[in-house]
Amino acid sequence: SPTPAAGGSLGGVAATSVLPFLGWGWEMPFQVQGTPPVDRASRPTCFFKVVSPSYFNALGMHFRAGRSLSETDTARAPFVAVINESMAERYFSGEPPLGKRIVLPRIVSGRRRGPDRAWQVVGVVGDEKVRGLNDSSAGVYVSYRQTPALGVSLAVRASSDPNQLVRGI
């Protein structure tokens, strides 16, 4: 865990496959389990971020329902996902999404899409500005412990001048 430099105050730190405002990262074809099967090429897409469980807290994102990802969400545990509010509103027809499953590819070897996997929705978080200030993209967040990612970035929130934290980080 990073130690803040003298005079700095660390508000939160997390790992992510894509930082806010830098785009979707992985664009994943998905479908809600229980709907008629659709060929992967014909499915709608959403952003797909691989994050550490601390991501939502570090970015100051608020949960609307359910829970965050956890350090216990490992490769040996049931695969779980947090979806954003836009995903919940657009694709769950007003029904509570918690406990439902989304069929998405799993990342294989950190670079390519693997076979489809059902991810259970455990939380709904407020929308993140992924592409810009007016963005309301549908999205899914999964734990780095359940699917690999290359090129991980560090997201840091500071309650003081962030330049004071650079050396400590």
Shape descriptor? globular
Poorly predicted regions: 1-9
The helix/strand class is: mainly beta
* Cα-atom radius of gyration: 16 Å
Instruction: Estimate what percentage of residues fall within beta strands.
Output: 35-45%
Largest sheet, if any?
A: 8 strands, mixed
Number of strand elements: 10
One letter per element, helices H and strands E, the order comes to: EEEEHEEHEEEE
Distance between the termini: 9 Å
Describe the protein's topology.
Layout: E1 10-16, E2 26-29, E3 31-32, E4 45-51, H1 55-58, E5 63-66, E6 80-84, H2 85-91, E7 101-108, E8 112-125, E9 139-143, E10 153-158
In short:
This protein is 7% helix and 37% strand. The protein is mainly beta and 169 residues long.
Outline the structure in words.
It contains 2 helices and 10 strands, in the order E-E-E-E-H-E-E-H-E-E-E-E. Helices cover 7% and strands 37% of the residues. Strands 2, 3, 4, 5, 6, 7, 8 and 9 form an 8-stranded mixed β-sheet that branches. A two-stranded antiparallel ribbon has the order 1-10. It is mainly β and 169 residues long. It has helices at residues 55-58, 85-91, and strands spanning 10-16, 26-29, 31-32, 45-51, 63-66, 80-84, 101-108, 112-125, 139-143, 153-158.
Question: What labels would you give this structure?
Answer:
169 residues; mainly beta; 8-stranded mixed beta sheet; 10 strands; 37% strand
